[in-house]
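User: Predict the structure for this protein chain, please.
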Amino acid sequence: MARLTPLHFIPALIAAASHAGEVTIELRPFSIEKSCAATALPSGDCVLLKLDPKAWTDFKILQLADHGSKIGKGDVLIRFDSEDIDKKLEDSRRALESGTLALTQAEQDSKTLAETAPNKLEALRRAAGIAKEENAYFTQVRRKATEETAAQSLKHSEQILSNQREELRQLSKMYAADDITEDTEEIILVRQQDAVAAAEFALRMETLDQKRTVEVTLPREAKTLADNERDTALALKKAETDIPRSIDLNKLALETLKTANLRAKQDLADLQADRALFEFKAPADGLFYHGPIENGRWTPAEVAKHLVPNGRLPVQTAFATFVPGTAKLTLVSFLDDATARALKPDLTGIASLAGREDLEILVKLLKLAAVPGPDGTYRADFSATWPKEIIPATGASVQIRLISYQQPAAIVIPTKALDFEPNGWTVEVRLADGKTERRTVKRGRISKEETEILSGLEVGQVIVVP
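Assistant: Here is the predicted structure, written as structure tokens:
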């Protein structure tokens, strides 16, 4: 690859014109120089410090290393106030323990419910069956039997009273035949009278019982048995729907508790992971810079207002860069479309630092982006051979100059001598008889106000320049 020499920065002399406005064609060196601004940045070994928490968002700075300071391995780069997150961690642990216990109890309750549900349904079916049987038996058999029993008891009481009265009548008649009633006979008569009175009372009571049995007790029992049959049937029907539903609802509630428990575990794990972000230490000896160095750019201004004691850093944002002592300082530039198109990898050139223009810094194009970034520029990465006298600080600006194209002998004419016509690019050529004519030419590369001609002109010809 060509290296820049003083010759490249001195405009080539155009061959003497036969008179003003005319140029005689001759071969001479031709080159195209490209220049671009670049930034000195460390190589890709840098460690980007970024807050990328899973849950926590409040990061208040307690300790911050100075910008550009030298750092030893293990030194604290930045530390945040952890008081609030430590409290939150303790609350989350307790909540998780409580939730785990609740889940265990719910699992036991769910198991018990599933195991006892068939027994409950069976008990309700049995109760409904018994109620139905009892009502049917009462309606078909026992009510009539009870009425007959009551009637029979009343009839029996009436028969007893009739017998007692008849016995009293017979005794009275028998003892009335004697002229004198003996004491024994008197006693027997009184006893029989008492028996009659007792039989009369028993009959009255039996009459009341029989009437209440027929008019109140049996109708009431019939209503109770019918209601019981209905209620137990309804309870069974409801239970046949409710119990399976309660099991399903319990399962859903249990799954909800399980989900909540898993989320609580995940939340705690997230907080524990976020707790590790409250202190950044240097992984090696190196330098610490405020602001992120990424994608070939150093942008400290975006977070500078937050990088102060008690400042709160935004999350999901890179805020600083650790540069290992082994990192090499390279150059990064962002080129416009025309410049990028003119360059190719391995091209060499020189770079200069403002204020030390006497130092020549040899550079080499290592990598050139094939497509532009969102801002329309092409990233170019250069290696640099830094002089012993000075190594620039990270972020320093340099000016790079490259020879992107050169020919040792080429036909070059002023660009303004070209015109574009329907048949292509043309120039006006002076003929031997003094007249002129338009000649079609093929353009090559263009450098400032000069254009390389690949064909259509020959050495010694004279062209007219407006």
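Residues 236 and 242 are 10 Å apart (CA to CA).
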